Amino acid sequence: MEKTYVEDVDRSFYDFRFEENASFKVENGLTEDIVKQISKEKDDPKWMADFRLESLKKFNEIQMPNWGPSIEGLDMDNIVTYIRPDTERMHTDWNDVPKDIKETFERLGIPKSERESLAGVGAQYDSELVYHNVKKEVAEQGVIYTDIESALKGEYADMIKEHFMKLVPPTDHKFAALHGAVWSGGSFVYVPPGVSVEIPLQSYFRLNAPGAGQFEHTLIIVDKGAKLHFIEGCSAPKYNTANLHAGCVELFVGEDATLRYSTIENWSKNMYNLNTKRARVEKGGKIEWVSGSFGSHVSYLYPMSILAGEGAGCDFTGITFAGEGQNLDTGCKIVHSAKDTTSYVNTRSISKSGGISTFRSSVSVTENATGSKSSVSCESLMLDSISRSDTIPVMDVQTDEADIGHEAKIGRISDDAVFYLMSRGLSEEDAKALIVSGFAENVSKELPLEYAVEMNNLIRIEMKGAIG
Question: What are the extents of the domains in the chain?
């Protein structure tokens, strides 16, 4: 009898690695001395040095989460929180980047993408930005796109201080506090009023070292009437030891402004992905999230949108693929705190080979948010009998003058659909592959062509026959 099965996402493309060649790294663990050492290496202004120590204090006070996937395998005593790659400074020319680091990003296609389809690129390797550049015509529009540490100590210092970890305070949860203590690297973007950046900007994060953490901070401000598409990519080779990602993304969307934030995330299966992303949207503004989660051993990821101004809107489109050894707990949070605000959530999750996929949505509507509308739709596809998929919606509606809806579908591939496609000449394997690929289409169609191709490669699912 012939059996068919669906393979996991093929991550072999991302599993190449180079020997660790750090010019500096701190000891394993998390102590006050280590945090002070990081601060000294970064040449922090005094307020940031104090901020790190206060965050460390909060980290030690806040309990580990006890409501989601187990993170017992994550021991902070074994994590290296800061590794500086072997380069003296951040570069603006790919030719100046050290050979092994440059080859890493060449193989990931980042320079090619920059040449063909991006307005600017930032590339982080372990704990530091190694390359950052923005096209001249974009800079001439007044757009600021630089590494956040240069901005922190340069002419944008006041802007950074005003916004840094204001949306995601260290008191928010244990790993926000950890981020506040040991953050390093990341990008700062400011788009002036009325400026439309027609070509996307991208930051790419590569964690090469085993047993390390990556804690980049992304801060984006899109001013009144402006428009931006920002793409975040990340990957890491697989090791037999736990790695940690606890970055932070803070997005400020001004009045009548639009920001699309797209993420294609392909961490290896030894990664604990405990990232925090949050946006605040003013009157008439809009945040659009496009999220693809394909990697990591465990994920806690729930981008949050605070619709603070009248008529503000949020669109969230996401897909999650959980294979063997993966427990991916993802979703989104939306707070309607002004009248006539709108949100639309459309997600897909796929699980196989014992993978666990959980989607959590939280929609809050305050008593002031009259006339608001929210629609949440999530669909889950399980490809075998040992996988699991759960949907956990929470709705807190404080006004009768709102239109709120939620729908969820969980199931397996339809035998009728497979039979129909086979009756049209497809093999069983091809029929199932076509159904699964179509299931993920809602995300891929939201990305620019070259990134849709990358995502489709990530979720390329091969159908094979086996004797058994």
Answer: 14-414, 415-468
